[in-house]
Amino acid sequence: MIGTGYVGLVSGVCFADLGNEVICVDKDVDKISKLKRGIIPIYEPGLSELVKKNYKAKRLSFTTSISDAVQKSNIIFLCVGTPTKKNTNAADLSQIFNAAKEVSRNIKSSKIIINKSTVPVTTGDQIEKIISKKAKKKYFSVVSNPEFLREGEAIRDFTFPDRVIIGTSNKKSNRILKSLYSPLISKGAKYINTSRRGAELIKYASNAFLATKISFINEIANLCEKTDVNVEDVSIGMGLDKRIGGRFLRAGPAYGGSCFPKDTRAIVDTGSKFKTDLSIIKSVIRSNENRSKLLLLKVSKILKNKIKNKKICFLGVTFKANTDDMRESSSLTMIPSLSKKGALIKYYDPTGYKNEFSKNKNVFNCTTIEEACFDADLIIIHTEWNDFKSLNYKKLSKKKNFIIYDMRNILPYDKIKKDKIKYFGIGK
Ligand code: UGA
Question: What are 132-149's pLDDT values in tens digits?
Fold first, then answer.
């Protein structure tokens, strides 16, 4: 596994747990030395235990030597980052091309090179070209095998995927991969063999579609707020139609994370390179960018346009629950904006202090929920951590007329109403 980010580390550990011998490679010396000592660079439930177990069983090893790892392996997964290229919408493929170059120098026997990183359609063709400069074509095949795991649910998603997508026309590679994935297929995962380009596009189209679903329900939530309808009823009513499906219809703040924002931008960029206007995805991106501004306007309205010196508490700041990831979290737009308007902000996140707010005026990290909520005028539930679902907010705030803005609709509406707490949710 080349790259020990989210996809590389989780897939590597899970493959090891299925009984394979896995070598995880990363250039980052510090990261590798920490992993060898059982220190995990990311917060992901269950990952630490699985790393320790498989490292101890000697099925999992860590190294900084790509040449050593490639020579010892039959199957090589490229799992490096493909972030947005600076000042563009395009995916930056430099890490993947560099990894391909390094792999190519070490191919001395038959290898399957599998790209698991999220890459624009036709990248596999370019990887093949790079590798064929140094290695004989009969020694390798380049396959696309996109990963669909979510942060916070990564191990479960890897182990019980809906589908395994293998993009290759090479029959031998397909056979070997089917056998590698057979423990997951036997538990119900559908195995799909398609073209390499097809597999690459399936990944982007899936993320863009899920982002579209979220933005769609977020806009319906806006309409619900004006028409006194509960968006959760709409989600249930829509989702029960099997053609639509109920998942990813949870209205909330702008979607964030390391994937949807970057991948929607990248597929639009690919579209324009191939002279195809992806107008729906473009409008999803716009809708999502407007979402944080819209929720900020609502905060202002809730506080009767008096934000200066108001005590605001943020519960959760990560882009979703069960992760410490702050990438493209809507809190990164909301907190600085409210701080600029003179609000006094305290935040609590189960994953602790966030450096991202260190330069914002009057923004303080709290180490307990009690400390964060105490004396707050407004409590904003920003991330849907379980920790926030059953609290006695009246007891926590102490302030008589405090308000809750539940941006994830996680609190029991009836109980909140009964307790006469001034409450705002999303789309209700
Ligand atoms: C996403 C996809 O769900 C994975 O299938 C994919 O493998 C991954 O990107 C990737 O490309 O690597 P992830 O970004 O980890 O996974 O997290 P999601 O659970 O999809 O959440 C993304 C954003 O959508 C979050 O901000 C979340 O709060 C938001 N969301 C999700 C909603 O607002 N409503 C929903 O109903 C679902």
Answer: 999 998 999 999 999 999
